[in-house]
Specification:
Elements: H1 2-7, H2 18-39, H3 42-53, H4 58-95, H5 98-101, H6 105-118, H7 125-146
Helix pairs in contact: 2-4, 4-6, 4-7
Domain Dynein heavy chain tail: 1-147
Protein name: DYH5 protein
InterPro entries: DHC, Dynein_heavy_tail
Length: 147
């Protein structure tokens, strides 16, 4: 069920800022960390031992699911790590007036550029574009509040 949810297209409000992106990935990380913890439990290992001894055909499906869960957990961990590196640059978008937030923009753009070039999972144009939209949304929200 968690993997099916993970594969679905995200539906979110049009005015979300970059904090929402970090929160989204933190929730995903929490879910997948819990699943990974369960996969390492003695009960699961015992069941896998029985399936292996019985040469069950379910092992192939199990391994495929295990790989998908591990990959999703790694993606969430990686994305959270990189989005945390953005936090100091996008905080002024939440806490400053439009004139003051201008100073944070070069660092923010450089960090997003670094994320795109280094991140294993967050380097698609779709994800980077979505992040830029969220940054822009927050800038607009801050400007509206200032006015």
């Amino acid at each position: 069920k968690v993997l099916a949810e993970n594969d679905q297209v995200r539906k979110e409000a049009d005015d979300l800022g970059p904090r929402a992106e970090l929160d989204y990935w933190k929730k995903k990380l929490s879910k997948f960390d819990y699943l990974m913890e369960q996969l390492k439990s003695p009960d699961v290992k015992a069941v896998l031992g029985v399936l292996t001894a019985a040469k069950s055909k379910l092992l192939k499906k199990w391994r495929a699911l295990d790989i998908r869960i591990t990959d999703a957990a790694n993606e969430a961990k990686d994305n959270v790590k990189y989005l945390y590196s953005l936090e100091k640059y996008y905080n002024p978008l939440y806490n400053s007036d439009p004139v003051s937030m201008v100073d944070a923009i070069p660092g923010l753009i450089n960090t997003i550029k670094m994320i795109q070039s280094i991140s294993r999972y967050y380097n698609t144009s779709e994800k980077i574009s979505s992040l830029f939209v969220k940054v822009t949304n927050q800038m607009i929200t801050a400007c509206k509040s200032y006015i």
